[in-house]
Amino acid sequence: MAKTYRIAPSILSANFARLGQEITDVITSGTDIVHFDVMDNHYVPNLTIGPLICEAIRPVTDAIIDVHLMVMPVDRIIPDFAKAGANIITFHPEASNHIDRSLSLVRELGCKSGLVFNPATPLDYLDHVMDKIDMVLLMSVNPGFGGQKFIPETLNKLRLARARIDAYMQKSGREVWLEVDGGVNAANIAEIACAGADTFVAGSAVFGAGKDSDPNRYNSIVGALRTELAKV
To answer: Which helix (H) or strand (E) holds 172?
Structure first.
């Protein structure tokens, strides 16, 4: 059976002056998920967007909104994003004093939950909470800013994560997505997929393809990403 690959453009790289139209255009071009990067200038050295923006874009698209929380602590803000229309909420294990509780909170509020691993964060956090996880997100850059280069060691970590997820899926029959975020582009997406990823966050690679008003400007880059994935 052919593997399903999902492309998740990160709106961190979009034109915020016309964000609603950007999301409509990029989803129409053939992407699957709206990736929503939340940074607090505390856990990471940058400040981005919050629940009000999520609430504003929810009526614009039926696509999955995948909220990546780069904030500390996480429990206070999780309900706000669930109420604002998030479908998936992921957070970093270092940002929660009680990881199991935070994952359970996301689930109780009707969202899918996941953990995010920075380049040097071990995967051991997965050992006792896989039953509460719907997505594992590996950062292939150090979080905080878009436009960074892919860290090659992430390929080895992807293989390890893939093995863990496959073993769990075989035992439980439940699907868990493996997402990668940072420096993904048409030149490396096939190699990343071969290492085990099935969901790909692409920010500057996609939104950098054009900021003009042509609604089809993302078709070419998304087509190139799909072409590379078809080779896997």
So the answer is: helix 154-172
